[in-house]
């Protein structure tokens, strides 16, 4: 590696959106750029958060002169719980670098990453993530929103719950089911908003509307809560977007309460850890449905047999969703996304479109 750099970006949302616990007024991203003496440049993505930025900068300083294809060695040298921490911004910083290194490896091989990793499929089923709370959005507006996702070809849609009383959320779930019909998967996501007993009440009242999963019903470390909820409902539990490394997912799998894992390669350790977690999940008969940025996960899902769904953010949620990257995925009418057959991981940024939003 000959040169490393980063660029931070942030843009306003058209209107604030709220999930079970948080309200978001902006979107942001960090692009990691690593150049090599072979003329190949690798790109990774992260977030411009205080702490993550500083750790990323300190990690990047150690890379010049090293072989980018030695991803295991580099990962191991950067992940140091004693010096940097173990499940937080240090792992997020490492993840963004690891994504760039795997991008380099695939480009050096002149292969799309999913083929380099083994290759399993060329199309991935997707779901559209929406259904946020926002000012002025009643049941009719919510129904119109999710129906528009079905018109885009989605065979699964996700909605937020947890920010209003259970009775109100059950009514929202009913409204969404009526709008999308009986054959489209309905995913509900609480973003850790509930205590286990509230989650049980919500799930039991929502069962008649046949949700495909109940995502993050409780805080990520409430393993006992996951077990209690799973024992009380027929709705599969999904979680993992706030989990880190193979060690964290080992412990999550050991609860025997989670049916679907939601690792985010931008947070939990990059490609290196994602593939290990996917293999652990496969050995335990569990599906992988990653959280976040569709571009970062498309190739990873195409490389594993236990991929179930790709999370896809539409422009209604992120106005720059189809402008951030040079080669954004295209939705197919059959509810799938075709994996681009270009060398690398597909995170090459659209610098012209991003330029007005650069910060720092």
Task: Describe the structure in your own words.
This protein has helices spanning 52-60, 71-78, 89-108, 113-116, 139-151, 166-180, 196-206, 223-232, 245-254, 270-283, 294-302, 351-354; strands at residues 3-18, 23-35, 41-46, 123-129, 156-160, 185-189, 213-215, 237-239, 260-261, 287-288, 310-312, 336-338, 358-359. Helix 2 (71-78) packs antiparallel against helix 3 (89-108), helix 7 runs parallel beside helix 8 and helix 9 (245-254) runs parallel beside helix 10. The protein starts with a strand and ends with a strand. The chain is α/β, with parallel strands linked by helices and 360 residues long. It is globular, with a radius of gyration of 20 Å. Helix content is 35%, strand content 19%. Strands 4, 5, 6, 7, 8, 9, 10, 11 and 12 form a nine-stranded mixed β-sheet that branches. It has two domains: 3-110, Enolase-like, N-terminal domain (Enolase-like, domain 1), CATH 3.30.390.10; 115-338, TIM Barrel (Alpha-Beta Barrel). A hairpin with a 5-residue loop joins strand 2 (23-35) and strand 3. It holds the Pfam family MR_MLE_N. This is Mandelate racemase. Its cofactor is Mg(2+). One of its GO terms (biological process) is amino acid catabolic process. Keywords: Magnesium, Metal-binding.
- Please give the CATH architecture of the largest domain: Alpha-Beta Barrel
Could you give me the name of the CATH homologous superfamily of the largest domain?
Enolase-like C-terminal domain
Q: Count the beta strands.
A: 13
Oligomer, anyone?
single chain
Supply the number of helical segments.
12
Q: Which descriptor suits the 3D outline?
A: globular
CATH class of the largest domain: Alpha Beta
In the CATH scheme, what's the topology name of the largest domain? TIM Barrel
